[in-house]
Amino acid sequence: MKDYKSRIADRMLHQKLESSGAVLIQGPKWCGKTTTAEQLAASKLYMNDPDEQMENLRMASMATRRLLVGKVPRLIDEWQLAPQLWDAIRFEVDHREEHFGQFILTGSAVPPDKSAMKHSGTGRFSWLTMRTMSLWESGDSTGEVSLTELFNGGEADAGEKKMEIERIAYLICRGGWPGALGMTESAALRLAFNYVDAVAESDMSRVDGISRDREYVIRLLRSYARHQGSQVSVKSLNDDMAANEGDMSASTINSYQQALRMIFVIEDMPAWNPNLRSKTAIRTSDTRYFTDSSIATAALGLGPNDLLNDLKTMGLLFETMAVRDLRVYADALDGRVYHYRDKNGLECDAVIHLRNGKYGLVEIKLGGEKLIDEGAANLSKLEKKIDTERMNAPAFKMVLVGVGKYAYRREDGVLVVPIGCLKD
């Protein structure tokens, strides 16, 4: 595609096709799953094509394998509309002469009815989660500091290039939606509001066929937005909504949360459990996050100027944007992002833990020497608690900032890295 902007997921998809019969790309609507898949697909089937959807669904129930005929890798877009395709693809992969690189499946929702899926897909399928664009992918980061190099002992070295706080506020509200990149700033900011409207109006009910109240959806999204980056309980979410806009039962909130997960609107962060020198109790509650910071700002009705007038809120939502970027980069390194919090209140915003056992500790701060000092002190305290006889020492300790001119290493060994120069 002529105007296609390269994604980190491009090479991940290529790698997975080399070792899997089928690759399932999943993630939020509008994040670019289908466009990325189209770059490698040799033939394509769009299950939700309005002119062919009914015929596709009829064929899926009567002669499923006929939908799988085509040059490989064959893209099947929005496959979850016909979950029986899953087992048909597994069977087809098993019985083809070439077992690898046969199919690419894309979907913006988890299938509501998995009863038609008799097999787990183990050994035939691999999974690729796509997210909205990181700042490196959207061209808003110089990419001078590489997480890969930091894990391999490299330094954080970037020339002077300060991202102004006004630009950061805009990027938080714009989000990483690929479609926003070619728009004017005012139009790009409206895109997230359109996304939230679509979630509330239709996506929440269509995902599993259960009718959900639009106002309940909006209320829950607002409450979630207020608690970004915290380990707030369902009861606290309920109390927040009751205090501001009316009560919801815990079971209703759980149902709505599950639907939001199924359409990849929210992605909470699990707790990290390192080996510690002492018997400190680790808090295991998940941290609440949207998949993109712009969903939070749109849910709250905020724009860049609102954030600039409330730097505390801006700092919390900057964390959501930074976590999205770290997740994108960690995926490329075969890693995951966790948080740490113990009974004594010691926290670490993000722990990037790779499958090979290496990990990095990250504190996220909007900027300012005082906040950087606090973040560095937290990282040093946590490092001292880790039992390095039972696990590796951290590959690096980093304070990831929004406002800052340079990437550098402090005297205490902590890296300070502006988000505008980070990449995978």
What does this 3D model show about the protein?
This protein is α/β, with parallel strands linked by helices and 424 residues long. It folds into two domains: 8-129, P-loop containing nucleotide triphosphate hydrolases (Rossmann fold), CATH 3.40.50.300; 135-423, no CATH class. Helices cover 40% and strands 14% of the residues. It has helices at 8-19, 33-40, 53-62, 85-95, 135-138, 147-151, 165-174, 185-206, 214-226, 234-244, 250-262, 293-300, 304-308, 311-332, 369-385, and strands at 22-26, 43-46, 74-77, 103-107, 125-129, 145-146, 335-341, 347-354, 359-365, 396-401, 408-409, 415-418, 422-423. The strands form three sheets. The chain has a six-stranded mixed sheet with strand order 7-8-9-10-12-11, sandwiched between helices. The protein has a five-stranded parallel sheet with strand order 2-3-4-1-5, sandwiched between helices. Strands 6-13 form a two-stranded parallel ribbon. Strand 3 (74-77), helix 4 and strand 4 (103-107) form a beta-alpha-beta unit. Helix 7 (165-174) crosses helix 12 (293-300) and helix 7 (165-174) crosses helix 14 (311-332). The longest helix is centred in the middle third of the chain and has 22 residues, at 185-206. The model has no long low-confidence stretch (mean pLDDT 92).
